[in-house]
Amino acid sequence: MPQIRHPLSGVVYDLAADGTVVLEKDGKTGRFTTRGQYLEGEIKQADPQLCGWIGGVQLPSRHQQMAEASLFADSAPAAPGHAVADDPGRGSAAARPRTPGGAS
């Protein structure tokens, strides 16, 4: 499960199987909601931002997103207005006819 140590207090924030956040330091523990609300234990205060970060939705990293996007790049249809290899008349300024006066 995700786990992080608070950089100032040294308390370890850990996500429990039931979705609550368990804090531990020096043998003492506390249990909190993902919004930082106290539930039980000897530790009675938590950083609500770290509770939300540990207990929130786990998104893939940008590296994972880029890797997945490159897998589907060749099979995805082109968006409207974007150049397509077999359609030279769309998207590219070089492929568009020039108008009098140089404006394109």
Describe the structure in your own words.
With 104 residues, this protein is an alpha+beta fold. It has a domain at 3-55. It is built from two helices and five strands; from the N terminus they run βββββαα. Strand 4 (28-32) and strand 5 (38-41) form a beta hairpin. The longest helix is centred in the middle third of the chain and has 11 residues, at 62-72. The mean pLDDT is 80.
Helix and strand topology:
Elements: E1 3-5, E2 12-15, E3 21-25, E4 28-32, E5 38-41, H1 48-55, H2 62-72
Antiparallel strand pairs: 1-2, 2-3, 3-4, 4-5
Overall mean confidence score, pLDDT:
80
- Looking at how many chains there are and whether they match, the oligomeric state comes to single chain
Helix content: 10-25%
Overall structural class, as computed from helix and strand content, comes to alpha+beta
Return the string of H and E elements.
EEEEEHH
Taking Cα atoms only, what radius of gyration do you get, to the nearest Å? 26 Å
Strand content: 15-25%
Q: Give a count of the beta strands, DSSP E runs of length 2 or more.
A: 5
The dominant shape is elongated
The largest sheet is:
5 strands, antiparallel
State the end-to-end distance.
56 Å
Model regions low in confidence, pLDDT < 50 over at least 5 residues: none
State the strand order across the main sheet. Answer: 1-2-3-4-5
Q: Helix tally?
A: 2
